[in-house]
Amino acid sequence: MAPVNLLDHDLDALTAWCEARGEKRFRAVQLFRWIHQKGEGDFDRMSDLAKSLRDKLAAQAVVQALPVAGEQASADGTIKWLFDVGGGNAVETVFIPEAERGTLCVSSQAGCAVGCRFCSTGHQGFSRNLASGEIVAQLWFAEHQLRRRLNLAPGERAISNVVMMGMGEPLQNYGALLPALRVMLDDHGYGLSRRRVTVSTSGVVPMIDRLRADCPVALAVSLHAPTDALRDQLVPLNRKYPLAELMAACRRYLAAAPRDFITFEYCMLDGINDAPEQARQLIDLVSGRGAAPRVPCKFNLIPFNPFPASGLKRSPRERVLAFAAILQDAGIVTTVRRTRGDDIDAACGQLAGEVQDRTDVQARLTRPVIRIEPQPQVRP
Ligand code: SAH
Ligand code: SF4
């Protein structure tokens, strides 16, 4: 029987796995802490586990990291890793250091089936879902790699926030996403608070409801258009779950959490969705008609990051700022996302670990890993 990848298991699943082998729950907790808190993948080095358990683990389990196929560092401290997920596919993970936090942008799928007009991942089509362990492996690798590089003291963390904003639509891979989120939140795992883990979705309405019931982390919704006519063109999933249903799902998501808010992401496309009139339509959209109160929300305007074949242009800065001002004047907190890592194609929407041209993928996968020196400013 093939060994199981322990990165696939949240603590409850690991406990069940251990109990099925005659081991008590506290052993599962110890094992889970070795893996996620200490970054240990070698059972022999888990010194406080009984030899009998270590032997069972060595025979039946592995901690399966993803092979690193490439690494690039941006002048601004952003680091992008390319992970080989087999079959000629690769996914990308991006670390974004800021003064007060370190954010890891994690992928959920190789490719994406939603096919948004402005997204490089969408243009390449869908290859496959990642397993939970492949989602967790991105965090496991990045956290422990960065701790070593930055010489962090025991207990210090490199990554304080996770955003599921890499390649793929996380809510179309819900079965794998949920255990991975639980590992991120678990106090014996990465101990991230639910407000520091963000799931970003293009609007898979039934799964927004599931997430609310199972694991209500911070929610970002990729809006990009104020009307169904335009959103149908930009985000094809809108034809299945139009704006009225999406807004209703956002309201339900927040119903039980009065201090929470939805982050609406809005990619600014020159001449397409950046007119003042469209900002006013957005205000109407989130304000609701009739008796509905406004959806508690923030807007995050993302200047479009161009990629070959998109045929689209970034909105000029003045238009982005004017758009932001209209939302702000209506009392909606609005930020304009600073573009990070665009010199290494690590900015939003530029991630394309798998491309149609397989020869290019092979070239990327065999390219030697570029080692970079620790950078003081990377420290969150
Ligand atoms: N599939 C999810 C999460 C991954 S995309 C989603 O769509 O929300 C993460 C964010 O990057 C989304 O808000 C997406 O709309 C945005 N994005 C995609 N392509 C972009 C591009 N070329 N320029 C700027 N933002 C982009
Ligand atoms: Fe998929 Fe998100 Fe890209 Fe749309 S923006 S194609 S949902 S990854």
Provide key terms for this protein.
globular; two-stranded parallel ribbon; alpha/beta; 10-stranded mixed beta sheet; 380 residues; 2 domains; single chain
Q: Rounded to an integer, what's the Rg over CA atoms?
A: 21 Å
Task: Give me the strand/helix succession.
Answer: EHHHEEEEEEHEHEHEHEHHEHEHEH
Please identify the structural class as seen in this structure: alpha/beta
Low-confidence stretches: 354-380
Write down how many β-strands occur, each being a DSSP E stretch of 2 or more residues.
14
The pLDDT mean sits at: 90
| CATH superfamily (homologous) name of the largest domain | Aldolase class I
CATH class of the largest domain: Alpha Beta
The largest sheet is: 10 strands, mixed
> At the third CATH level, what is the topology name of the largest domain?
TIM Barrel
Cα separation of the termini? 42 Å
Query: Which CATH architecture of the largest domain?
Result: Alpha-Beta Barrel
Strand content: 15-25%
Shape category: globular
How many structural domains can be distinguished in the coordinates? 2
- Summed up, the helix count is 12
Verbal overview:
By secondary structure, the chain is of the alpha/beta class. The chain has helices at residues 11-19, 25-36, 51-60, 120-124, 132-150, 174-185, 205-214, 228-234, 243-255, 276-287, 317-329, 358-366, and strands at residues 4-5, 61-62, 68-73, 79-86, 89-97, 102-105, 109-111, 126-129, 161-164, 197-201, 218-222, 262-268, 297-303, 333-336. The protein has two domains: 4-62, Orthogonal Bundle (DNA polymerase, domain 1); 68-365, TIM Barrel. The radius of gyration is 21 Å and the shape is globular. The two termini are 42 Å apart. It binds S-adenosyl-L-homocysteine (SAH) and iron/sulfur cluster. The site of S-adenosyl-L-homocysteine has 15 residues, from strand 10 and strand 12.
